[in-house]
Amino acid sequence: MLGSAAPARRRGRGTSLRRAEMRFVIAGLVPAFLFYAILRFYPLGYAFYMSLHDWQLFNPLRPFVGLQNYAAILSDPLFRRVLANTLYFAVGTSVILTVLPLLLSLVLNPIGRGSTLFQLLYFLPAVTSTIAISTIWLWIYQPSFGILNQLLGLLNLPQSPWLNAPDSAMPAIILMSVWGGVGFNLIIFLAGVRGIPTMYYEAAAIDGASGIQQFRHITVPLLSPVITFVLVTGMIGGFNVFQQVYLMTQGGPLDATRVLALYIYQTAFQDMAMGRAASMSFILFAIVIVFTVVQLRLRRIDWEF
Amino acid sequence: MDRRISTDTILAPGLPRRGARSIDGLWRLIRCAHLAHYVILSLGALLMVGPFLWMLGTSFKTATETVSVPPTLWPAHPTLANYTDVFNELNFAQLYWNTARVAIVKTALMVYTGALVGYIFAKFQFRGRTILFYAILSTMIIPFEVYMIPLYVMMVQAKLANSYLALVLPSIFSAYAIFLFRQFMFGIPGDLIDAARADGAGEFYIFHRIILPLSKPALATMTTFYFMWEWNDFLWPLIVISDSDKYLLSVGLATLVGEHTSDYGVIMAGSTVAIIPVVLLFVVLQRQIIRGITLTGFK
Predict the structure, then answer these.
(1) What angle do CA B211, B123, B221 make, to 5 degrees?
(2) Quick check: pTM over 0.90?
(3) Number of Cα atoms under 13 Å in the Cβ half of residue A221
(4) Which of A201, A273, B52, B264 has the most beta carbons within 10 angstroms of its beta carbon?
(5) Is the confidence metric ipTM above 0.90 for this complex?
């Protein structure tokens, strides 16, 4: 009796289990599927549709114009300027935000007491909203009463108009963004540096390798996955820069800090030229895709070591 | 590192014997204690904290003192007038409440759905699993600037513009949360789930009573991160919310800067008020946050 009951029970439970599992999977995934279809992929297609039309927000007439929006922006000197500005920011911040935190992580790694406190202090700007940080730096950069020019004046060093002059505005925004981002990358590099076995350095020291040689031939090669990761994600983030520029300069002076995301925002929501803004957003998308592909390729290469 | 070794060897030979020994000892002490490292790091820390102190100091200054030359580092006559301005005239309490509500709802949604969908992708075998997962993951590379324009038009058409529903709807799911929870759920033993099933537990019961409690570390990290991100969210609220009573903190602060261009005492009080909750959260949960970054490696 026992022998005949047990298999039947198991089989019965087995089939109902499978159906219950299916029901659970469907209950969990259908909302997700609808969400991604309606609020991600549909808008993506809609954006492309808009980019092929003369699409003004308050004008019901939206004639099809083919690739004219793309042709117009690519021949627009201001758009080229905007691309150059964005590249300037992206390269500037990503390179500095790779080199500086890497060096800092080497300084921070050997110390024991207080290491966490330093990580905390360096990380503080990273948890603060970019708008709040930009507000603080707007005041720091204020030409006549801001602390930076006042300090330079006290030290008899040349002062700068910072955000108020075309030449110094972008470097000022880059400097502020580096200040805001250094702590985050420092923590990533610190984890990387701590993962390198100390015996490599011990062996190199026995062979008489100097600190700089150890850095070049041990630290950098072993950290190259982390370095490319930080560099490429930094580039992608840099191409999307918006808040700092929106708050501090609104793209001025003389378009010196007008970057892609800001230009898209202004074209779409201030000039109401949504079709044109959509075509610009696809240029941004193309750039991001290129860097993402580069990153995936590089990562694959690194894994082979 | 090598520089300190060379100073050591340069300094030692030229000095008298007893002195040499004590200076030698001093250098050894400096090297062991990593004094140079502490000096560099402390200077850096000063640069990191300085702007916040400048903000805090300015927020307690009178309008005349903010524009004094040379500047005072700390207010000579501290005043709370800037803070009362921020709360009375600019209704920052309302902005706080708005931001907290939206951030909490969005965080709860994205963390819960992330855990659920991540669990399904990690622990269930079904047709189309891989392609569905990568379809969701691929949305991570779409820059927000691409879909914010059609999304705004859709919200206007659905008569949702200027409502919090428009803020919440696009963030019910997060591909990033799904990805990270999937990684985490791989580590939960399948035997445990099977044992619960053998005891007759339903699938939702297993998820809520077994999987979620086991995921506490991941849940804590993700909740903290999403809350901080949502608290600081800017572009979408800027686009979709036009009613100043419904503004979120970041947008309210940006508007404050636009309206009070020269009144830096008030602006700095506004910034201070805006960043306090996140900084407190960070100080309390610093260890988990730093470990979370190390584990996930993403912003």
Answers:
(1) 45
(2) no
(3) 7
(4) B264
(5) no
Q: Can you read off the two tokens belonging to residue B182?
A: 């999937």
C-alpha A188/C-alpha B233 separation (Å) is 23
Q: For A194-211, what is the mean pLDDT?
A: 86
Nearest-neighbour CA in chain A from B83: distance (Å): 16
Q: A119: which 2 tokens? A: 């990580």
Q: What is the C-alpha to C-alpha distance for residues A35 and A41, in angstroms, rounded to an integer?
A: 9
Q: Do B203 and A184 touch (CB under 8 A)?
A: no
Instruction: Return the pLDDT at A173.
Output: 96
The alpha-carbon gap from A212 to the nearest alpha carbon of chain B, in Å, equals 8
Q: Which amino acid belongs to residue A243?
A: Q
- Per the CB < 8 A criterion, the answer to whether B94 and B186 are in contact is no
Å between A211 CA and nearest CA of chain B? 5
Lowest mean pLDDT among A145-149, A296-300, B168-172: A296-300
- Domain segments of chain A: what residues? 1-51, 68-303
Highest mean pLDDT among A222-226, B9-13, B203-207: B203-207
pLDDT surpassing 80 at residue A17:
no
* Cβ–Cβ under 8 Å, residues B135 and B128: no
Query: Domains of chain B by range and CATH?
Result: 2-81 (no CATH), 86-296 (1.10.3720.10)
| Percentage of residues in chain A having pLDDT higher than 70 | 92
Interface test with chain A among B42, B47, B147, by most A beta carbons within 10 Å: B147
CB contact set of B264 (below 8 Å; sequence gap of 6+): A139, A142, A145, B58, B66
Partner A contacted by B112 (CB < 8 A): no
| Segment A20-57, tens digit of pLDDT | 889 999 999 999 999 999 999 999 999 999 999 998 88
**B218 alpha carbon, distance to own chain's centre:** 16
Sign of CA dihedral A147, A151, A156, A160: negative
Contact (CB<8Å) B282/A116? no
Would you call B48 and A147 a contact, using CB atoms and an 8 Å cutoff?
no
User: Would you say residue A188 has pLDDT above 80?
Assistant: yes
Contact call for B257 and A264, based on CB within 8 A? no
Tokens at residue B221, please? 């990290």
For domain A68-303, the question of CATH label 3.40.50.2300 is answered with no
Beta carbons of B289 and B222 less than 8 angstroms apart: no
Q: What residues have CB less than 8 Å from B159, skipping those under 6 apart?
A: none
Taking CB atoms and an 8 Å limit, are B275 and A129 in contact across chains?
yes
- Dump the DSSP string for B158-189: TT-TTSHHHHHGGGS--HHHHHHHHHHHTTS-
**Residue range A98-123: mean pLDDT, rounded:** 88
Which structure tokens are listed for A207?
Answer: 């062979």
When CB atoms are compared, the residue of B45, B71, B149 closest to A118 is B45
